[in-house]
Design brief:
mainly beta; 10 strands; 31% strand
Length: 144
């Protein structure tokens, strides 16, 4: 991964700390562009194929290395790569959606907790031929 801070004139490596280099979803804090989250896996098959899935979420602040976050998230093995989103009204809240459920972080991605949702069971079945197909959209409520 590369980073440019001058509109693309120069680029520097930006992957120190990432043990898994296949990335899918990235979220950059709106109020602090040096705070980021990324979902990652060893490769596309590990990201999208439930029979061999293994994925992670990493967090980065300022000049620190990328750090894998795990507290409150499901175990990596069997978890397909997450879609990430920032709450439109609270800059401290982030969401992660994967085949294990929907997770919420109220501390800018440091720790997570599962949101209890009554999922339709057919959406949680893990057949080897089923590939990860999901999207995550977080919107504010009108008037709030």
């Amino acid at each position: 991964m590369l980073l440019s801070r001058d509109g693309g004139d120069t680029w520097v490596p930006f992957s120190d700390g990432l043990e898994h280099r296949y990335m899918f979803s990235m979220v950059v804090s709106r109020d602090d562009p040096d705070m980021m989250l990324v979902s990652a896996s060893a490769g596309a098959r590990n990201a999208y194929d439930s029979s061999v899935a293994e994925s992670y979420i990493y967090r980065k602040e300022e000049d620190q290395l990328w750090e894998r976050v795990e507290q409150g998230l499901p175990v990596a093995k069997g978890t397909m790569i997450s879609n990430l989103a920032e709450d439109p009204q609270d800059l401290n809240i982030f969401y992660a959606l994967n085949n294990r459920g929907l997770y919420r972080s109220a501390d800018r991605g440091k720790t997570w907790s599962a949101l209890l949702i009554d999922w339709n069971k057919k959406h949680l079945q893990l057949a080897p031929q089923r590939r990860h197909r999901s999207a995550l959209l977080v919107i504010g409520r009108k008037g709030e």
